[in-house]
């Protein structure tokens, strides 16, 4: 792998005690290019602008996918990337559905480790902080004919971050707009799934909410996921989360939480369709003990209220509840304070 180091690090320009999510980037980035049916040797070089023409394919047709993952500063002074193979696999799931070339997993794994290793000083040490890693791929051919791109660029950039949500997370059950439909691209991390969500989210923000809870496209009866995270509820001492489908992103945090809950017998788990009505009724009857979002950026973010048809239902999600307990188990595993029986951390 070709590595060209920056002449002058920018790290001293960054106030690590005041990080705004995803706005500052480490010294280096990784780039690999695809053309004529194969990927080039990846290159690590100083973070900086890419150049392209106005006919660059992805600007017109949106063959663009990404991942979100994190590197942590661990108690023994090592750096650990959380479940990178899972991200490599999910990127390729997105690539297949978006008719883009798959990226060899070893290129992804070796590339991300080499990049984070080079920029290891950028991994924040403070609690609840990490280096957010953003691998992404996009069609880079220069033509505007509506057919798949022939060239692609894969890139990884890194951003030191603190918590994604600060303060209350108030969600609104969305019954007008739809994030995804059966047979669509909802299970991929394609750029359009996020771009397409901004309008509805902004409408909800104007009404005082932080995010929307998406519901199924057919009847708006089933809970699907929230803005940037999967969702779960604790009702009657049972952890309930919607099952994966081609409309829902297969969250790696979601999967990790389900694994921990099942293996450690922390609470009864049900992965099954969840009706909005069930959640609202449980809230009305005082049986909705907790609600929270699960995601790489969001980690585990307690939802403090759910708005449905003009009424807001407050949710306590106590400090000694299930969400906070699971968060601690996950945080301890990531920091090295607890064992990692699954080999989830790629440490170096
Ligand atoms: C992540 O959790 O990594 C996400 O993809 C959310 C992001 C859009 C901020």
Task: Describe, in plain words, how this protein is organized in 3D.
This protein has 348 residues and is an alpha+beta fold. The protein folds into 2 domains: 2-163, Aminotransferase class 4, branched-chain amino acid transferase, N-terminal domain (D-amino Acid Aminotransferase, Chain A, domain 1); 170-335, D-amino Acid Aminotransferase, subunit A, domain 2 (D-amino Acid Aminotransferase, Chain A, domain 2, Alpha-Beta Barrel). 24% of the residues lie in helices and 28% in strands. It has helices at 57-61, 84-97, 105-118, 191-195, 198-206, 252-264, 276-284, 322-335, and strands at residues 2-3, 28-35, 38-39, 43-46, 64-66, 69-73, 79-82, 130-139, 152-161, 170-173, 211-215, 223-226, 230-235, 238-241, 268-271, 288-295, 299-302, 305-308, 311-314, 345-347. Strands 1, 2, 3, 4, 5, 6, 7, 8, 9 and 20 form a 10-stranded mixed sheet that branches. A 5-stranded mixed sheet has the order 12-11-10-18-19, sandwiched between helices. The protein has a 5-stranded mixed sheet with strand order 15-14-13-16-17, with helices on both faces. The mean pLDDT is 96. 2-OXO-4-methylpentanoic acid (COI) binds at residues 68, 194, 228, 295-297.
